[in-house]
Structure to design on (145 residues):
């Protein structure tokens, strides 16, 4: 039974170092969260500084003022940047916060598709990539000590 030697310690499977893929995907997710957060903050700041920059179709179901839209994106952007840096710690709470922040970003991007369609679809795709990376490989990253 030499092939099983060292695989169990005290009845529990030994923890192994995370692979390069797992670490790389979490760093990817963290970087994308920070970048998407900056994008949201810039879009929100643009909406706050110039109400006429974004044009909304007349019959939009989720229509709101551009100023409200700007504040939502500015505050959400700062939250995403914070979640992206917090994800680098590798603990469970950071992963949960990162997934919920990416989900909130995806909803905000969907909500604002009429304001800036191509841009928000790109952000939506990046949010989905972050959620996948954190959920699929987040548990493999060992918390910082």
């Amino acid at each position: 039974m030499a092939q099983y030697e060292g695989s169990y310690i005290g009845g529990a499977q030994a923890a192994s170092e995370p692979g390069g893929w797992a670490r790389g995907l979490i760093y990817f997710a963290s970087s994308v969260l920070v970048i998407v957060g900056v994008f949201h903050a810039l879009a929100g700041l643009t909406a706050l500084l110039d109400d006429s920059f974004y044009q909304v179709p007349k019959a939009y179901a989720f229509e709101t003022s551009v100023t409200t839209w700007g504040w939502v994106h500015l505050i959400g952007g700062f939250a995403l940047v914070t979640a992206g840096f917090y994800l680098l710690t590798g603990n469970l709470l950071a992963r949960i916060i990162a997934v919920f922040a990416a989900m909130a970003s995806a909803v905000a991007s969907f909500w604002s598709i009429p304001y800036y369609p191509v841009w928000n679809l790109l952000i939506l795709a990046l949010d989905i990539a972050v959620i996948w990376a954190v959920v699929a490989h987040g548990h493999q990253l060992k918390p910082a000590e």
Observations:
- The longest strand covers residues 8-9.
